[in-house]
Amino acid sequence: MKRCCLTLLCLLALPPALAHGGHAGNITDDMPDAEKIRFCERVRDHALQALYNRDRGSPMKLYEEDGSPGPRIVNHIIRRIYEEPQISSPKKAEAFGRATCNEMMGSQRQD
User: Are 109 and 102 in contact (CB under 8 A)?
Assistant: First the structure.
């Protein structure tokens, strides 16, 4: 399970790192909305895993933040899912994860 989560995190962190010339940086306005939306759709997997872990009583598993937006956004979503009992179903976790990511990334899509 840890290997799967680490692989997903690497996949999430790789495109933004490559888009910024190999260095971690802030998200700029030149990142197309389509790319932001795809990224946020992948973040929902982390939201579902956090809900599953919370419901099993597992401790919160956060990612090491390296300055890139991927781990920062995922960690924010994981913390909120653990803190908010009203996020009680996979559908609510997916919607929350996608909406929060879209908001933090500044994409124009409304879910």
Answer: yes
Say what angle helices 2-19 and 69-83 make with each other, to 10 degrees: 140
Residue-wise DSSP of 52-98: HHHHHTPPP-PPPP-SSHHHHHHHHHHHHHHH-TT--SHHHHHHHHH
| Model-wide pTM > 0.70 | no
- Give residue-wise pLDDT tens across range 30-75: 567 778 778 888 888 999 999 999 999 999 999 898 888 889 999 9
CA distances from 73 to 70, 80, 108 (A): 5, 11, 17
Give the model confidence (pLDDT) of 84-96 as tens digits.
Answer: 999 999 999 999 9
Please state, in angstroms and rounded to a whole number, the distance separating the CA atoms of residues 13 and 22.
11
